[in-house]
Write a structure and sequence with these properties.
mainly alpha, elongated
């Protein structure tokens, strides 16, 4: 399956037309169709992947990163579906949680500290 075929497949699954996808991705009308004969730029393909909420790897190669758990994929999908304002906030929040919770044995104490941390943040 080629790039265009994968784009068309996801558009169909998500109820998009190519024209709607181009508009929401900031591309000119008919630009995706030109990719059948012209090599697209990275930033345009990345924009399409972001709009469709699929990985750039999958869109280009048809292969997804296999080493992610279902929960990790969900986090990635949530991050990708967030806008430019929400993505840095999502990252900051994840980093704050990581710092608040200990790793390894004794995780229960970390949960109590995390709850205190949440109370103190508000």
């Amino acid at each position: 399956m080629c790039l265009i075929t994968r784009i068309e497949k996801v558009c169909k699954e998500k109820g998009y037309t190519i024209m709607k996808l181009e508009k929401e991705s900031g591309l000119s009308n008919g630009q995706i169709g030109k990719w059948k004969t012209q090599k697209p730029s990275y930033d345009k393909v990345a924009s399409v992947a972001n709009t469709l909420n699929v990985s750039l790897d999958w869109l280009i190669t048809g292969k997804e990163t296999e080493d992610l758990t279902q929960d990790e994929r969900k986090l990635v999908d949530l991050y990708r579906s967030t806008n430019d304002i929400g993505q840095p906030l999502t990252m900051k929040h994840a980093e704050d949680i990581q710092q608040a919770l200990p790793r390894g044995p004794g995780k229960g104490a970390g949960i109590i500290r995390f709850q205190d941390w949440v109370k103190n943040r508000n």
